Amino acid sequence: MLDVGRMTFLQQLQHQGSYANLGFALCLRGAHGVSALSLGEVDDLIQAAEKQAGAQGLTLKVQGLETVSQLRAGYPGVDLFWMVPMDLRVKGPVVEAPSNIQLELTGFGMLDSGTSLLLLSEKPLMQTLAALTYRTNAMEQIRDNGGCGVGTSECFLDCRTTKLNPLTTHFTSEGRELEVVLESSDLLVPVHQAKDGTVLCQIGLGLLTNEQTPLPMMVLGDVFLRKVHVIHDMAGPAVTLVPDVTDRAEVVHFVESHEGHAEAASFDEGRGALQIALTLPSLTLLEALLLLGGCLLGYLAFASRV
């Protein structure tokens, strides 16, 4: 997010250079993958991402953030975040309806590389966790652990054997659809290693506590972003999602336990392996690092339109 009324770094570059439509693409991958940040013309970034992923992307207009006070006053939302319309769906293991959909929530997803998990407000979070574990061995582990406190996301689950129902994020735009499916290997996050060597995971969903908007929304963090290329169009504002099925989450092999805390053993190899592709001759190293820091912390968005 940005301070309202201030010009962004990319917008300054747009004004200083001869760029038709300057944007940036973000590709986050797991501990054994290579993440990349690319700057350039939006059309070129989309074409490159589609070629690399072997799939066609979907462009979505950004939704303005409406606070409760703005809604009551009749004012439109402000473009502060990369927030797009979406549906969240969970299919169950047993065919109880033609679509086999256990849960469907309609709202908006906020793309944020500074968040590790998927974040939802309390009621949708509980509904989603219940649907993910419905009639799975995860439900059995949760029951054996006495319910694991508040919310099943706090439970320790066996990374190797736990199976969850798939979670689907569904997007539509101009008659076209895109589905990004998160399987068990995507949703289970390693957090601890037991004394017997068993690697334990938690479900990668968390509670969105600071809700500023009456819109039903969730934060799409790294758990989702590792499945797509995201091209950010500052002028739109819009984002293009290009699905990439080449990266699978590693849920077992990169966890070490240090004084009761789990850490990624190959953190420096994974997140540190960040490639920066620059097509801007006027960009200095310092400017690139400042831009990079803003992107990865989730603070680079766009200035509000007056």
UniProtKB/TrEMBL annotation:
Is Transmembrane there in the keyword field? yes
Question: Annotated Gene Ontology MF terms?
Answer: aspartic-type endopeptidase activity
User: Which keywords are on file for this protein?
Assistant: Membrane, Transmembrane, Transmembrane helix
Asked if rRNA-binding is a keyword of the record, the answer is: no
Which PROSITE patterns does the UniProt record give?
Answer: PEPTIDASE_A1 (PS51767)
The record, for SUPFAM superfamilies, names:
Acid proteases (SSF50630)
| Pfam families xref list | Asp
Task: Report the residue ranges that make up the Peptidase A1 domain in this protein.
Answer: 1-242
Q: Known InterPro entries for this protein?
A: Aspartic_peptidase_A1, PEPTIDASE_A1, Peptidase_aspartic_dom_sf
Q: Name one GO biological process term.
A: proteolysis
Where are its TM segments located? 283-302
Sequence similarity = Belongs to the peptidase A1 family.
Q: What is this protein called?
A: Peptidase A1 domain-containing protein
What species is given as this protein's source? Symbiodinium pilosum (Dinoflagellate)
